[in-house]
Structure formats: structure tokens, C-alpha cells
Amino acid sequence: MASEEYCESPDVAALPPQERWQAAPGDAVAACTQCDEPTRFRADAPGAVLCPRCEWQQAQRGACSG
After folding, report:
1. Is the pLDDT of residue 37 over 90?
2. Contact 47, 27 (CB under 8 A)
């Protein structure tokens, strides 16, 4: 099939979306959009990236908004 040429490799496609953008050693790292601390994501990661602390706080706010 011609459409298979455009599919991601199975090892990347099997990863959750947030893990596809994790930084490897030596990669430029994105700054947290809330506190400007380094994150675990590459600088070219899409969307609003958060450091582990802000990610945890965001999850707590979402869990308690109920």
C-alpha cells in the first residue's frame, strides 16, 4: 500500500504521545511554560510543556475540580 510509506515506525507509534517528544542526552530541552524550569521534553515538542512539578500540580488541580 502507498499509505504505509507515511506511517510512523511501529516502535514510535507504540509510544504514548508524551513519550515521543522526550529528550535524549544532548538534545535541547524545552522550558516549562509555567515556571521556566527545564523539562524532560525536546525543545521542538508541540504544545504547552510542563516540568515534573508543574505537571503534578496540574494533575492535582484536575483531580480536585470534580
Report:
1. yes
2. no
d(CA 63, CA 14): 27
| Contact partners, residue 7, CB within 8 Å, separation at least 6 | 13
Q: How far apart are CA 56 and CA 53, in angstroms?
A: 5
**60 grid coordinates:** 492535582
Residue 30 has phi, psi (to 5 degrees) of -75, 150
What backbone torsions phi and psi does residue 22 show, to the nearest 5 degrees? -70, 140
Return d(Cα 2, Cα 40) in angstroms, integer. Answer: 35
The residue extents of the domains of the chain are 7-64
pTM: 0.60
